[in-house]
Design goal:
The protein is α+β, with helices and mostly antiparallel strands and 156 residues long. 42% of the residues lie in helices and 21% in strands.
Length: 156
C-alpha cells in the first residue's frame, strides 16, 4: 500500500465506495487484492477514529434505531460450535439523529442483550438531551429490557 500513488489509492477507495468487492476493485484498478484489503482497513480505521472524535455531545430530540442483518463466513445454520462467536449471523446496530439523519452510533455483533447494551451505552454516551425513540427494527428479543437504560436522563 505504501507504494501506491495517491491517485491510485483514491481510485481504489472510489471503487470500494461504489459498492464493488475487494476482488473486483483489485481487478478494475490493477492493484493486488491484499493491498486493496489493507487500504480498505486503514481507511476504515481512520473513518472510525474521526467518527469517534466528531460524534460526541450531540443534541437531538429524537433518535431512530435500526439494525441490519448480515453473516460472516457462513450462514448461522452451517456454523460449528467452536465458531459461534466469530462467524454466522451478525447485526449492524445503527442510532441516527431523527431529523438530521446523522449516524451517531453504530455497533456490530450478535443479536443478543450484550451487543444491544454495548450499542446503547455508546449511543447514550454521545447524546445530550431528553430523548424520544423511533424503534424501526431493533431486536424485539432484547429491546424491552434495554430501552429504560437508553431513555434514562444523563447528566451533562
Amino acid at each position: 500500500m505504501n507504494n501506491l500513488s495517491r491517485e491510485k489509492q483514491i481510485e481504489v477507495i472510489a471503487a470500494l465506495c461504489e459498492g464493488v468487492g475487494i476482488r473486483t476493485a483489485a481487478r478494475l484498478t490493477s492493484v493486488n487484492r491484499g493491498t486493496v484489503g489493507s487500504l480498505a482497513f486503514c481507511v476504515g480505521m481512520g473513518c472510525m477514529e474521526l467518527h469517534d472524535r466528531m460524534m460526541v455531545g450531540i443534541r437531538t430530540e429524537r433518535l431512530e434505531l435500526d439494525e441490519a442483518w448480515s453473516f460472516v463466513g457462513k450462514k448461522q445454520k452451517n456454523v460449528q460450535r467452536h465458531e459461534v462467536h466469530a462467524k454466522g449471523d451478525q447485526y449492524v446496530f445503527i442510532g441516527m439523529a431523527g431529523t438530521q439523519k446523522a449516524i451517531i452510533s453504530w455497533g456490530v455483533g450478535k443479536r443478543n442483550t450484550e451487543s444491544t447494551m454495548d450499542f446503547l451505552h455508546d449511543l447514550r454516551s454521545r447524546v445530550i438531551s431528553s430523548l424520544r425513540f423511533q424503534q424501526t427494527a431493533l431486536s424485539p428479543i432484547s429491546a424491552p429490557s434495554v430501552m429504560p437504560l437508553a431513555t434514562a436522563p444523563r447528566m451533562e
